[in-house]
Write a structure and sequence with these properties.
Length: 266
Amino acid sequence: NSIYQYAWTICNSETVLISCQVQTDGPRHFLQPVGSFDAETQGNLIHAFQALPCPIKIFGVGADFIQKNPEFVSHFEIHNDSALANYIYRASDLATLAGKFYSKKRNLIAQAHRLYQCSIHKLTPENSRECLDVLDRVETDREERDAIVQDDRAAVETAIKNFSALGQKGILIQIDGKVAAFSIFEPLNRDTAVIHFEKADRHYKGLYQIINQETAKAIAALGVSLINREEDLGVPGLRQAKQSYGPLEVIPSSTLVFTQSLNNPR
């Protein structure tokens, strides 16, 4: 929120519209409307968009929304945004890493356990602030703190400071009594949990693979069958890492750019 300055309004009793600011001092854009989205609300929203002096975009739009609301979508150009696609995995796949496909992951984990004395702990409001030590080491290893790293840290700090209020869960890994990795996740619904953050000190080879597997085990233990590991943000290394775990599905995301239908010119 400190980065995107989210705001929201209730359009009617069953529709929530969320706006965000992608660039500092730039125009406000929107996320896909949440809840019921009847024809009257759609028409009111199009009318409101026409009156705004800046270009309008709606981010994170799913295929179902586009299919269900053709009249509303006809006022927009549709752009596929692979950077915002969500990676979905079977929790059991990531928890067990069974089969030939995951052999390299298993080998890295086995090597790490031979080299390091790892202890796994439940992340709690009391010990969550220790995670910031890991972030300090991750950032020190980078040649420069780019905007993505800074934004990511702000989000982690917000999650930690509001750990209980936001209903977060997670695990923490210590090596020789020192925090070396952590993850933060939460159940999205009965079937799916979302992993928001996984961070590890890269000085320990194989530690990222351990935190990934241990997080999946913790999620599977909750009776949740699917894991959403969120987007790759168009970062090549992050995309490669997410693909290396064999996603069950990559759910596409579109951005709608407001134009004006030929039947209703400005």
